[in-house]
Amino acid sequence: MNNPIELEKLINKNVTVYFNLHKKLWSIKSKGRVIGHVKHVTIEPTKFHVNEKQRLKVIEKKCRQVHAWINGKLISYGDFSSHRNLKRPISFNPYKCDSFYWIELDGKITPISDEKIGYLYFNGNTKKCYSLQNQ
After folding, report:
1. Nearest CA to 34 among 8, 7, 73, 13?
2. What is the layout of strands, in order, in the sheet containing 33-38?
3. CA–CA separation, 61 vs 11, rounded Å?
4. Which residues contact residue 23 at a Cβ distance below 8 angstroms, ignoring those fewer than 6 apart?
5. Cβ(102)–Cβ(110) under 8 Å?
6. How many of the other CB atoms lie within 10 Å of CB of 38?
7. 111 with 101: CB under 8 angstroms?
8. What domain range includes position 58?
9. DSSP 95
10. According to the model, what pLDDT value does residue 82 have?
11. What per-residue string of b and e applies to 79-94 under the rule 16 or more CB within 10 Å gives b?
12. In this structure, is the dihedral angle defined by the CA atoms of residues 108, 113, 98 and 13, taken in order, positive or negative?
């Protein structure tokens, strides 16, 4: 499904990113349409979204459904994985918290507000998202 030409056109454009539980890859959407599935992606986030009604449905029915995503400006994508300036990991688990959260060194979680956090790197190997030092 990856269309390299369409993905390349999205560099520095607003996209939506979420983890695809079936493909085990990060999905990149633009204008309501999935453009590709990639192992690694970096965005400059603008908004963290959680559909609370869908989150509660997932908890009640114990089903998998996209109900959380991050919007932002696409910086890069592909099969790379060599970021040396990873900061704090970010995660989302509907059973632990009703929003995206930081994973602290001691394992505790801290909900993320819409503060400016620089860039986000989505790692396909660990299936985690990390904040990056501003580049």
Report:
1. 7
2. 33-38, 25-30, 14-20, 68-78, 40-50, 119-123, 128-132, 86-91, 101-103, 109-111
3. 37
4. 37
5. yes
6. 20
7. yes
8. 4-132
9. T
10. 57
11. eeeebeeebebbbbeb
12. negative
Sign of the C-alpha dihedral computed for residues 133, 46, 7 and 40 taken in this order: positive
Residues 6+ apart with CB under 8 A from 128: 89, 90, 91, 122
Structure tokens at 45: 């986030």
Q: What average pLDDT values come out for the chain (135 residues) when binned by 10 residues?
A: 81 94 91 92 89 95 91 84 69 92 88 75 79 59
The pLDDT score that the predictor gives to residue 21 is 86
- Domain total of the chain: 1
Burial (CB count <10 Å: 0-12, 13-18, 19+), residue 71: middle
